[in-house]
Amino acid sequence: MRPSGRTPEALRPVSIETGIAKHAEGSCLIRIGNTEVLCAASVEGRVPPFMRNQGLGWVTAEYGMLPRATHTRGDREAARGKQSGRTQEIQRLIGRSLRAVTDRKAMGEMTVTLDCDVINADAGTRCAAITGAWVALHLAFQHCVRTNIMSAIPLRDHVAAVSCGVANGEAILDLDYAEDSTAEADANFVLTGSGNLVEVQATAEGAPFSEAQFLAMLDMARDGVAALVLKQREAVGG
Amino acid sequence: MRPSGRTPEALRPVSIETGIAKHAEGSCLIRIGNTEVLCAASVEGRVPPFMRNQGLGWVTAEYGMLPRATHTRGDREAARGKQSGRTQEIQRLIGRSLRAVTDRKAMGEMTVTLDCDVINADAGTRCAAITGAWVALHLAFQHCVRTNIMSAIPLRDHVAAVSCGVANGEAILDLDYAEDSTAEADANFVLTGSGNLVEVQATAEGAPFSEAQFLAMLDMARDGVAALVLKQREAVGG
Amino acid sequence: MRPSGRTPEALRPVSIETGIAKHAEGSCLIRIGNTEVLCAASVEGRVPPFMRNQGLGWVTAEYGMLPRATHTRGDREAARGKQSGRTQEIQRLIGRSLRAVTDRKAMGEMTVTLDCDVINADAGTRCAAITGAWVALHLAFQHCVRTNIMSAIPLRDHVAAVSCGVANGEAILDLDYAEDSTAEADANFVLTGSGNLVEVQATAEGAPFSEAQFLAMLDMARDGVAALVLKQREAVGG
Amino acid sequence: MRPSGRTPEALRPVSIETGIAKHAEGSCLIRIGNTEVLCAASVEGRVPPFMRNQGLGWVTAEYGMLPRATHTRGDREAARGKQSGRTQEIQRLIGRSLRAVTDRKAMGEMTVTLDCDVINADAGTRCAAITGAWVALHLAFQHCVRTNIMSAIPLRDHVAAVSCGVANGEAILDLDYAEDSTAEADANFVLTGSGNLVEVQATAEGAPFSEAQFLAMLDMARDGVAALVLKQREAVGG
Amino acid sequence: MRPSGRTPEALRPVSIETGIAKHAEGSCLIRIGNTEVLCAASVEGRVPPFMRNQGLGWVTAEYGMLPRATHTRGDREAARGKQSGRTQEIQRLIGRSLRAVTDRKAMGEMTVTLDCDVINADAGTRCAAITGAWVALHLAFQHCVRTNIMSAIPLRDHVAAVSCGVANGEAILDLDYAEDSTAEADANFVLTGSGNLVEVQATAEGAPFSEAQFLAMLDMARDGVAALVLKQREAVGG
Amino acid sequence: MRPSGRTPEALRPVSIETGIAKHAEGSCLIRIGNTEVLCAASVEGRVPPFMRNQGLGWVTAEYGMLPRATHTRGDREAARGKQSGRTQEIQRLIGRSLRAVTDRKAMGEMTVTLDCDVINADAGTRCAAITGAWVALHLAFQHCVRTNIMSAIPLRDHVAAVSCGVANGEAILDLDYAEDSTAEADANFVLTGSGNLVEVQATAEGAPFSEAQFLAMLDMARDGVAALVLKQREAVGG
C-alpha cells in the first residue's frame, strides 16, 4: 500500500489552468497532486548567437523553485549567486524534451523560452514542468499563428513526462515526496504522444536494480504519459 | 483623466488570498489591480549570527520577480548570478518596514523570513509586497501561538504601503505601469495602522517637484493605506 | 544637547578643496566635519549602449569607501567580489540626484562618471558625496566649455543633500556617527538651489515617527542645503 | 560500416595504467581508443558536514577537461569562474555510480574524492571516468587496508560504464567523436559486475527513438561493461 | 636626458604626511613625484585561521587604485566583481616585504592589515606603497606600545622599495609614467635599511637585457632606497 | 648535503616527451625530477580585441594544477570559482617569458595559447612550464610552417627557466619540494639561449639575503638554463 493509498500504477489528480502569466505569449499552472508549477512561454524574434543563420528556431527553458515551495525553506539561488547543478540539469532536460517534438525549421529564427517556476513541490517537479511547458509552448505558438508570425503550429507531437520508482522491490508510478525520499530507484521517462522515447533517466538510490524492475517502470510510464497527453489536449483546446 | 479611468485618489481593486504556499507557516497572494505578489513566511528557531544572544527576534525579507512577470521577459537573477541593486534595495525596505511594527523582544530568538515573489507586475510591486508580507507574518505568528511557541502575536500595529506620483503636475495614488513609466515624480509611503510614518521615499523622475506636491501625495497615501489595512484585517481573520 | 555641542539646526564645518585628482576633468575633496569624500568626474565621448542615439548625455556615479574610513576596518568590496546593496543604493542615488539638474540634451551624447570615494567616514557620506559630486561635475563641464566640447555648462541648478534625524523626539540636522547610530529616525533630503525636492528618504530606525517630526526635519534640511549651495558656489568660482 | 571500421558491438581498445598520480592513494590513466582520463583517489579521515555522525563514509568525484583535450581549445573553467552544467552533471553521476557499489558503513567516517581529468577526449569521457575511477578507488582502499585504516576493501561489486547510440537507425556500442556528433540517440549505461543497473541515461538527439532501439542498446551495453570489468580486474591485481 | 629633466640616478621629490586616516592605528600619505598612496594600518587582536596557535603575528596588505587615479578612468574592481591579477600580485608583494623585517614572534598573535590605496598614479605605485606601508606599520606599532599591547616595536629594520628601468640602453632610477611605458626593462627592488635584499623583480619589456644592465639598476636602487629610508625615519619621528 | 644527495649546482633528471595532447598543434610532457607538466599549444587565426590591427601576433599562457598533483589534495580552482593570485601570477610570467623571444611581427595576427597543466608537483612547476611551453610553442610554429600559415618559425631564441635558493646560507640549484619549503630565499631565473635575462624574481622567505648570495644563484641559473636549452633542442628536432 502506498502512503497516499494509491495503487502502484495510479497517477495523482492532474489539472492544467492556462493564462496565469498575463504578459506571456502562453502560460499555464500545472498541478499534479500537491506539486504546482507555473510555466510561461516568451517568444522573441531572434535566436541566440550560436544558432544564427541556420534557418532554425530555438526552444530553451529555465527552471526555478520558490524558496518556500518545500517543507523547509531553501536558499534563494539568486541570493546565493548561482544556480545549483540540479537546477541546470533540469532546465537542460526540459529544453531538450521540447526541442525533440518541435519542427525548428518551420519555426524560423525565433526563440521561445519556457520559464518553469515551482510554486509548491511534492516531488515530480521536473516531470510536471515538461508536461506544463509543452502546453505553454503550444499556446505561444497559437499566439504566433493568430498574429501571423507563423503559418502553422510547429509541433510534431506531444511530449510529457512522468516519474517512476521502485519501492519495496515493486515498481510504482508518479512518486510523491514521501515515496521519493525512500525509493530504492528513481526514474524519469519523457515520452511523445505516439509512444516513442525522448529521454530516460533511471538511478539506483541504494542498491542497483534489475532489468525486470526497469522494464516494469517503463510500462507504467507509458500509461501515465498517455493520461497526461489527454490533459494537455484539453488545455490547448484540442 | 488617468489611463485606467480612475480618479486621482482611487486605489485599484485589492484582494488577499491566504494559504497559497502549502508548506509555509503563513502565506498569501495579494492582488492590487494586475499586480500579483506571493508572500510566504518561514519560521526558524534561531537568529542569524550577528543577532545572537540579544534576546531579540529577527524579521527579514527576500524579493524576486518571475522572469515573465513583466511585459518583456527579464533575466532570471539566479542565472545572471546576482541580485540587482533594485532587488536588494526592495528586500531591505520590506524587512525594515515589518521590523518597525514587530515586538522583537516578545518574539524571542526566532527568525521569520518573508519571501515576496512577483507573479505578475503592473507597478507597485514593492508596496504590494509590504502589505502582503504583513499578512503572511501575522498568519505565521498565529501558527506560533497555536503551536505554543509564542504566547501572543508580537505585532504592535499594521504596516502597509502605497505608491503615489505626480502626473501632469497633479498628485495621484497607486500608479499602474502606464502611469509609473511617465510620472514626473514617484513616491512610496510605508505607514502604520495608526497613521505614523515608517518610510518615505520620493524621487523626481525628471524635474524636481515642489513641497506642495509632496504634501498632496502624503495625504493621499494616508487614505490609501487606511483602505489596505482594512483588507489586511479581513485576511488575518480579525 | 548634542554630543558635539551643536544646536539642533547646526551644520558641521564644511570645506571643499578642488583639483585633488590630478587626471580628472573635475574633482574635489569635500569635508563635512570629519567626513571626507573625494569626488572625481571623468568625461567620456560616448554614452552607454542603452542610451545610444537619443541625443542625450548620461551622468552616473560610483561610490566606495576605503576599508579604514571607519572605526573598525571594513571588508574591501573588491576583495569580497561584490558591491554591497548599500553601495549600489547610494551610487544610484547620487546619479539620479545629479541627473535631476543636468540638461542632458545640451550635453550631447557624452558621459560623465562621478567617482565618490570616502576617505574618512563620520556619517552623512552619501549627502557629502552628492554635494561634492555636483562641484566635480561643474568643474568637468567647465573643462568641456574651455576645450570647446560644450558651448555652455549644461546644469540647470545646484543640487545638494543633507541628513536629518530624530533624537530624543526632536529633529536635528547633519548627524555625526554618534548621533546616527542612536537616532530614532534617519532622513536624507536632496534639494535644488531653488528649493525644490529631488529625493526624500526617511526611515524609522525604531518606532515609527510622526508627520510633525517629518516636517520639522524637512524645514531644517532646507536651511542646511542653502548653506551647502553657498559653499558649492565658492568652490566652482561663482 | 562505422567510421572507425568497427562492428556495431565492438568496443575500442582499452588500457588502464596505474600509479600515474604519484601522491594519490590510488590512481590510473584509462585509455579507451583516443579518450584518456586520469583518475586519482584522495583519502581523507573525515566526512563533509552534512554526513557527520552517521557512521557512514562518503565517496565523491570531481571532473575536469584540460582545455586542449578537444579538437578546438575550450575555455578553462577555472578562468571562466564556474563549472558548466555539463561538468556538474558528470561529476554527480560519477559519484553516484561509485557509491552504489561501496559499503559506506564498512568505510567508516572517511571520504574518498575521485578526480577525473580528461587529458584527451574522443567521446565517452564520462564512461571512461566511471570505469577508471572504480580502479583508483579500489587501489585507494587497498592502501587503506595495507596501512590498517580499514580491515577489508569496502566494495560490493565492480561498476563500469559504456555509451551506446543509434546511428542510421541501428544500435552501436562505444561511440567515438565522429559518431557521437551525428548519432540520432545517445545513451550511457552504468552497470555492476553482476549485471544490475546503476544508472541509465538515454537521450534523443533529434527524433525520438523506439523502445526496440533502446533495448538493443541495453543489450550491447551489458557485453561492453563485462569486457571493461575484466580490464578493471587486471588493473587492481585481481 | 629623461622626460622630466632628471639625471639617471635622481629620485623624484618625496614627502610623507602622517595621520591622514583618522580611525587607523597608523597612516600616512606618501607622495613620490605625482604618485600619491594612502597607507593605513589596522590592528586586530587575532590572526587568521591558518596562523592560529603558533605564537606568531601576521602582517598583510591590500592594494587598490581609485578609478580616476590614472590618465583614463579604470574600472572599479568592486564593480567588476574581482581583483585583477596585478592587484593580487602587488598586495602579496607588499605583505611579504613587510613581514621580512617584522619580528612576528615579538608581535604575539595579532594582525596588522595595511591598506594601500592609490589616489594619484604616475608609475611606481607598488614601491611607494611598500615605503609608505612601513611608516603606517611603524606608527601602528607605536600605538600598540603606547597602549601597552606590546612592550617594544617589533620591527628589525626599515624596508623600502624603488623601481629602476633600462631606457635607451641605460639604467635609470624611479621611473615616472612617461618612462615606464617605454622602458626596455622594468625592475622593482625591495631592500632593507641595512642594504640586504628582500625582493627583486626584473622583467624585460621587449628584448631581454644583459647582466651588466641588471647590475647597474641594482646599484642605483641601493642609493634610492637609502634616501627613502631617511624620509621614513623623519616620518616616524626617529 | 641536499636531501636528494645532489650537489648544490646539480639539476634533477630532465626529459621532454612530445605529442601528448593529440589535438594540439604542439605539445609536450616535461619531467624535471618528479615534477611533470603537460604543455599544449593552440593556434588561433586572430588576436584578442586589445591587440587588433597592429600587425602583431599574441602569445599567452594559462596554468593549472590537477587537484592531486600535490601531497595533499588541493581545491579545484574551477569548483572554487576563481583562479588564485598565484595561478594568475604564474600564467602571466609564462606568457611574458615566451613573448620576449617571439618575433610577433613575423607571426602576423595569430594567437598561440599555451596551456600548462601540472600533473605531478615536486617544486619548480613554473620553471618547468616555461621550459616546456617553449617546446610546445616551437612545435606549433613548425606546424604553421608545414601548413604554409607561416614562412619561418618566428622565434628569435630559446627561453628556459630554473629555480635557485639559499639553504643553510649556501646557493643551490633546482629545488625540490623538501628544499623549497625550508629555503631561506627562493628565486626564479628566466634566461634566453644566448644568456640574456628575461625575468628575475628573488624573494626572501625569512631573513633578507645578501647581494653575494644573489649573485651566486644567478651564476648557477646560467648553467642550469644552458642544460635545459640542450634538452629543448633535442625535443624540437634541432
From TrEMBL, chains A, B, C, D, E, F:
It catalyses: tRNA(n+1) + phosphate = tRNA(n) + a ribonucleoside 5'-diphosphate. The keyword tRNA processing applies. Residues 11-140, 159-223 form the Exoribonuclease phosphorolytic domain. Phosphate binds at residues 86, 124-126. Keywords: Nucleotidyltransferase, RNA-binding, rRNA processing, Transferase, tRNA processing, tRNA-binding. Its EC number is 2.7.7.56. The keyword Nucleotide-binding does not apply. Pfam families: RNase_PH, RNase_PH_C. It is an enzyme of class 2 (transferase). Gene3D superfamilies: GHMP Kinase, N-terminal domain (3.30.230.70). Belongs to the RNase PH family. Phosphorolytic 3'-5' exoribonuclease that plays an important role in tRNA 3'-end maturation. Removes nucleotide residues following the 3'-CCA terminus of tRNAs; can also add nucleotides to the ends of RNA molecules by using nucleoside diphosphates as substrates, but this may not be physiologically important. Probably plays a role in initiation of 16S rRNA degradation (leading to ribosome degradation) during starvation. NCBIfam families: RNasePH (TIGR01966). Homohexameric ring arranged as a trimer of dimers. This is Ribonuclease PH. It comes from Sabulicella glaciei. The gene is rph.
